[in-house]
Each structure stands twice: as C-alpha cells, then as structure tokens.
Amino acid sequence: MLETVAKGFKAARARFKGRTEITAEVVDDALRDIRVSLLEADVAFDVVKRFVARVREKAVGLEVETRVKGARGRIEVTAQDHFVKICHDELEALMGPVDTSLKVRHGGPTGVMMVGLQGSGKTTTVGKLARRYLAEGRRPLLVAADIQRPAAVEQLRILGGQLGVPVFHEAGLTPPQLCRKALEVAGREKRDVVIYDTAGRLAVDEPLMAELEEIQRETRPDNVLLVCDAMIGQDAVKTAAEFDRRLQLDGFVLTKLDGDARGGAALSIKEVTGKPIKFLGMGEALDRLEEFRPEGLASRILGFGDVVGLMQDFEKHVDQEKAEEDAKKILSGDFTLDDFVAQIQMIRKMGPLGELMEKFPIFGELPAGFQFDDAHLGRIVAMVGSMTAAERQRPDVVTDGRVKRIARGSGRTEKEVRELLKHYQTMRAVMKTMGSAPGLLSRLPGIKQLAQLRQLQGKGMGDVLGADAAGVEAALGGGGVDPAQVAGQLQGLPKGYQPRMPAGAMARARLMGYAQEPVTLESAGDRDRRKKKRKQERQARKAARKRSKRR
C-alpha cells in the first residue's frame, strides 16, 4: 500500500543525510523526488503543485536548530529531521482534519445511504458498516436497493445472514419505493439504523444520479457516504467531485487499499472536495473497516510505520488479560511450541502479515520490494500439528527418527523441521533476554526517528507505546541495553562479545543508527601468536605437498 508514494519520500530523506543545513538546492532536489512519486501515484496535479509549494515555502531559508527543546528535555536533531517534520505536517494537513463520526437521528431510525460506481465494493462495505453498528449496540436494517447488478440482492442477504441482520427487499418495486418502504418497516420493527445499498454504474451517468437524488428526497438520509475504489486512481477524485455536486456527500470510504492501489486518491480526495475520508476498507472480511487516521497514514508514507494503528488492531482482536499472561510466559523464555502456534494464530486474526508489518517502524528500513511470506506461518502450524503433545511440550526430545515422521506428516522436508526446531530454541533465548532488558524496543530501526519526529511536534511516545514509553525514551537518551551485551548473552558467550557481522551488513547497520562497533576480547599479543601459528601450519602443509611429489 502507498509504496509508490513512500519511495519518493524515502529518496528525499536520503538527500538530507549527513547535511547540517537546509539549502534551496537540496530542497529542490528532494521535492523533485516527491513530486515524481506523487504524480506516479495518481495524485491530482493541482494537489501536488500546492503541496510541493507549501513544503518549499516552509523549508527554504529555515534556520535549523541542532538542539531542540521537546516534551522531555532537549534533543539532538538534524536537517533531515526538520525536513521530515515539515513533510509529515503537510501530509496530515492534506488529508485532514478528519472526522470519522456518523450523524445520529433522534426520534427515528438513522439513515446511511451508500453510493458509488459499480465494482467499488459498496455491498461489502454495507456489511462492514452494519458489523460496526452492531458492535456499538445498534440494531441495523440493510436495504437491497441495487436491482441493476445480478446477484447484488443475494450477496447482501448472505452478508446479513452472517451478521444476523435482516435484509429488506421486495421484487417489483423501484429503488426509491424500496427505500421509502424500508424506512417504514424499520420504524415498525424498532430498527434504529437503516443502511441503503444503492445501485452503481460503470461511470457517472444521468439516469444513475437522478435515481440517487430521488432516493435521497424520499428517505432524507442522515449520512451519504461515497464508496471509492482506490485502484482507479485519478478517476476516483473526478467521480467524488461529481457525486458531491449532486448529492452533497458527508464523507468517503476508500476501498481496496490493501491491493495494488497506488494511493493517490487518499491524498487527493479531501483536498479536492473538502469532505473527510471516514473509513478505509482493507480486504473482504467484515471486520476489515478502519477509521481513517491521517497521522498514521502520513507516518507510513514517511517510513515510520503506524504504531498507534498497530495497537488498535491488537486491542480489537486480542483479549488483553490473556495477552498479558502470554507475554509474561514468552518473555520468561518458558514457552512451548503450542504457545508459539497460538501466537501465530493471533497474528493471522489481525490480517495479512505484509499489511501488519507495514505498521512497524522497521518496515521503512527494509529493501524495496521486500515481501513477507504468509504461507510460511501455515507451514509452521502444519509441522507443529504433526508432533505429539509431548514433543510440542518438550521439543528437545525430537530425535532424527521423529523428524522424519513429522516431515512426512506435515508434507514438509526434514531440513524444514530441523530449521523450525532451531529457530524455536533461538527465539526462546531471544525472548528470555528481552524480558530482562527493558528499553530493547528502542533498538528497532525507525523508533529513534519516530521519537524525534514526535518530540519536534511537541508530543511524547506515551500515546504510542503506553507503559513502555519511559523505558524506550530512557534508552534513546543514552541509557538502555547495549546490543553487544545482548548478543553475548544469547549465545552463552562472555559478556561484551558480539559476533562479527559481514562488512556490508555492518555498514548498513551503522547507517541505520542501531548497530554498535563489534567488540572483541582478543588481545593484540594473542592475535599475533594466532597469526604466527597459522603461517607455520600453512608452511608445513606446503612442505608436505612437495615431499609427496618427490616420492
């Protein structure tokens, strides 16, 4: 999602790396990268022009303070940090302020009219919205007013059946008659919300708009929401402007942002129409309707993830008390393969792995085109499912013969089973160390930059990380855990030892700001003696080869 947009901002950030001042030349080069990526993402040209002009006006001539007083004291910042803050603030302003609330009628059922083009995901969104109202304790009624698309009525009935929500439809009535009669039925049956699923077309045409206007006159809905397919890019903005002109929209629902959408509609639609984006539709499941948060989307575009959104997903799908118990068990290092699989199943509830990882700050540091393999989680579950209860409780009892049996039972190779057992043992050691190392979260790529951005905005990390914020901020301020010590503890090596990384990996780690210089416990004298011994061994092998040839 939004990969095209994020690519330009990442390139712009790189232009400021190591610079101590913001000059007009550097700003223009950075804005060129941003302008190209926004246009490639189908953001409206006028919107791009105004956005770039606002960023340039604020950035050029800016006097950069290298030490800034934030919410928790003074912090070290760079020219890059200042530029990122300007971009973040302008992206937020471009998409907000947001209003995700829906109007409520007092003294009768609240009406919600869903409109949009054919194939935009209206009917599925009606089901998602009904599920949201159910969670709030409301009693919705769905109205199948789309008599143009084959099977539209049946699709809505299936969704209503899954939710336990009644669906109103009568054959032989026109859509305006259907909607008017549904309003009467809702009053009799004490339904406090009526959601109208109206017809769409392949493009905006006069018959469609006239029909929708008549439905609006007959029912006087409190909320008129346009469902926009984000994959149609620039056309979504044109469609939104025409619907708003004829129906006076209250807001938008952007769908299919989890697909190949370039995301231009999300950045254009609010600026062009002045109406807020209410929700984002992510996937087909009925629980995949998110409240739109400009701050979260701006952070993801800039490569900082969306930790607040991640926490909201977690709270929606996970029981808090059980999660705390599981966390204590895992961080103690005393967890079994059954616990491991339970965590995988919890992650699957929260959505596709790639979409979930986009919300982690580490995602912005991954190579372009990096993909997460959701199927790998399924393979792990299959292998663990082929073990006996005793093997899942104590994986150290798994012998070579048992590995063969587990591989045959799960349809995987013996190598994969051994790798799973090895990763499990490594993870136990890592989790045990993390449990005794407060502030280790501060070592995640992107966390430091995210914390600095929020401090420049006058905010802390409390609303993002909750109780962990103090430990992370202390670690960022110079305290916390030395990764070299952690690495040594993980492998049972002397304290202070860190295995040597390949040169390329170490260089990348230093650039990302979270790796320390490798620490070696070998003295200079020991190193000289080792080198001399190796040289003698090489000379002895060479002499032995010469003697064997003479014979």
Q: What's this entry about, in short?
A:
With about 550 residues, this protein is of the alpha/beta class.
Question: Topology, pairings included?
Answer:
Blueprint: H1 3-15, H2 24-40, H3 45-59, E1 67-70, E2 73-76, H4 79-95, E3 110-115, H5 122-135, E4 140-144, H6 152-163, E5 167-168, H7 175-188, E6 193-197, H8 206-219, E7 223-229, H9 234-247, E8 251-255, H10 264-273, E9 277-281, E10 289-291, H11 294-301, H12 307-317, H13 320-331, H14 337-349, H15 353-357, H16 374-385, H17 389-393, H18 400-410, H19 414-435, H20 447-456, H21 462-465, H22 469-476, H23 483-490, H24 503-512, H25 524-550
Helix pairs in contact: 1-2, 2-3, 3-4, 4-11, 4-20, 5-6, 7-8, 9-10, 14-16, 16-18, 18-19
Name some characteristics of this structure.
extended, 10 strands, Rossmann fold, 551 residues, alpha/beta, 8-stranded mixed sheet, Four Helix Bundle (Hemerythrin (Met), subunit A), 434 Repressor (Amino-terminal Domain)
CATH superfamily of the largest domain: Signal recognition particle, SRP54 subunit, M-domain
CATH architecture of the largest domain: Orthogonal Bundle
Number of helices: 25
CATH level 3 topology of the largest domain: 434 Repressor (Amino-terminal Domain)
The overall average pLDDT, rounded, is 75
Widest sheet: strand ordering: 5-4-6-3-7-8-9-10
Question: What share of the residues lie within helices?
Answer: 55-70%
Which CATH class of the largest domain? Mainly Alpha
**Count the strands?**
10
Which overall shape is indicated by the principal axes computed on the Cα atoms?
Answer: extended
Unreliable stretches:
438-443, 478-499, 512-521
Largest sheet: 8 strands, mixed
Strand content: 5-15%
Distance between the first and last residues' Cα: 71 Å
> Taking Cα atoms only, what radius of gyration do you get, to the nearest Å?
29 Å
Structural class: alpha/beta
Number of domains: 3
